[in-house]
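Repro case for the chain-ordering regression, as requested:
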Amino acid sequence: MVRIAVFVSGGGTNLQALIDAEKNGIIKSGKITLVISDNENAFALQRAKKAGISTKTVIRNQHPTQSSFENEILKILEDERIDMIILAGFMRILSEDFTGHYENRIINIHPSLIPSFAGKGYFGIHVHEAALKYGVKVTGATVHFVNEIPDGGRIIMQKAVEVKENDTPEVLQKRVMEEAEWIILPQAAEMIAGKLKQTEA
Ligand code: GRF
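-- result from build under test --
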């Protein structure tokens, strides 16, 4: 069984979609065995605890450097024998040193159709503000492999969502989450975990 760690920073609605997908058998090749947050107040941690998943909090400003922060996380991942990482609303950029330990084994959900509205500065609500400002008629979400380039890894799955008249950034964000993120992240997680499971066998 592929052991999965989910990294979170905020509300955890994508984590909840993953937890529900495991319960509903959509995710069957892997098991979420750990949730790591860089924010001790993340509601995502409550969701994990409610689902009986162990949690760890690693605080960036308690470390003198980014590598010290990342090394603490890597030690936890090693101790927990983690095979695959899912970034679900995780707000930190991970260095090439870190991503190099998990080549093609870290996936991320981004709330646009990459390459649009992606890369440095495009995160959370800002992505939807930019999409509305540009006036796109279609946006969506992307699951991609994580490398050292923000939102730069190979695309795994995408789902389009219609932009409607008078959408606010908040209304559009909710539609992209409901109609895209919460659907493709579990599907992509199962796809990648299934491939890893075959290599494990
Ligand atoms: C989502 O919009 C996700 O696309 C982005 O950050 C937000 C996290 O939401 N990466 P949640 O913490 O999963 O609710």
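Ordering looks correct now. Residues 169-200 form the longest helix (32 residues).
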